[in-house]
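Justification of computing resources. Each target in the renewal requires a structure prediction run like the one illustrated here; the chain below, 258 residues long, is used simply to show the kind of job we budget for.
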Amino acid sequence: MDYEIKQDGKFKYIEVGTGEPLVLLHGLFGALSNFRDLVEYFRVSYKVIVPMLPLFELDLLHTSVSGLEKFVHKFIETRGYDKINLLGNSLGGHVALVHILKHPERIKSLTLTGSSGLFENGMGDTYPKRGDREYIRKKTALTFYDPAMATEALVNEVFEITNNRLKVIKIIALAKSAIRNNLGEELSQIRQPVCLIWGNNDTITPPFVGKEFNRLIPNSELHFVDKCGHAPMMEVPDAFNKILEQFLAKLKTPAATV
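Resulting structure tokens:
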């Protein structure tokens, strides 16, 4: 299903459904397609929002985790969302963590899946000569347990990005920013309920990273999914949605009884 891309000033986003806001933040090579199954599942009972993060639109000085967090903060303020269930994958999880640490007041819960912020084997480190599609195919396949998930369309998306010199520079800037911005000492400050959903076969943020997040974040719960890599919401959507639904259901305010 195709969604209408809405615009509010400089912000582009999708917003479907009604109910509590469920805001989804994509990763470094993320796109709306990453969240398609999740959006379809939760739009029935939540207002699902996906802002398009300006990974390649910010000037180089602000192409960082902090720069993206400032963008997300302004987006939330502009749209007036409150009691937000915030979810981030990979770099999007890192941005979500920085946001909840800086601006916890509007956030009701946080869900992280394959999040950076402690440790990651980045894809944005170095690249061979541009135009090496087979290299990009192999690197894209490493995101998943099942390499068949790296479809031709997905490989083409990543190839287009990595074949653009300025975009590659910004990818490397974001990847380096994520490595520098280690949140280990700050995670104990998070007070909201946190759900960690991790692929048991994640090679980018391996399972020990999920365990460390669980150890450092006070009110957190950790769920592992077998035969799953770095993007559980794409690779095992049914299992992912079930875990997330049960987590969010526990947080819903019970209806008042007469």
